[in-house]
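Thought: the user wants the 3D structure for the chain below. I'll pass the sequence to the structure tool as-is, report back what it returns, then summarize two notable features.
Action: structure_tool
Action Input:
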Amino acid sequence: MSGGGETPGRMTGVERAIALRGVEAFRSVPMNELAHVAAVAREEGRSVGQVLFREGEAPGGLLVVLSGTVRLERGGATDGEARAEETLGTWSLFDDRPRRATAVAATDVRLLVLDREAFFDVLSERIEIVRSLFRNLVRRLVEPAMGAGGGGR
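Observation:
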């Protein structure tokens, strides 16, 4: 992260943190802590037709679609799309199960990539991020149970 001489089209650390703020798992992480996660995320571009990951592969981390469209395929059939500000593989940061779909760039795409290992390196030094992630996970688990009684979403 250089100060002031950013390459045109490249995100600053603050912009990466803001993009990560849109990821459900990180919504409760304080922005000053999220900046540490953003520091290890990287911006990448992929051309139309390039495979981002394949169904059955080991999880590699989180992808935030910054621009463009990613087509998701399961069993060889189209199973959906991800567009700008949507994420792929959020929970693969925490789960060792294989990828459940293949992701292919349907258009040229820009992505923010957060690798698992780099993420865990940050977590090992930033306990507040871990606390925030656990609070969010518990909320996700409890809300559906509470919603069954009529007070849910």
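Final Answer: Structure generated. Residues 13-140 form a domain with the Jelly Rolls fold (CATH 2.60.120.10). The beta strands are 42-46, 51-53, 61-67, 69-74, 77-83, 87-88, 102-105, 109-115.
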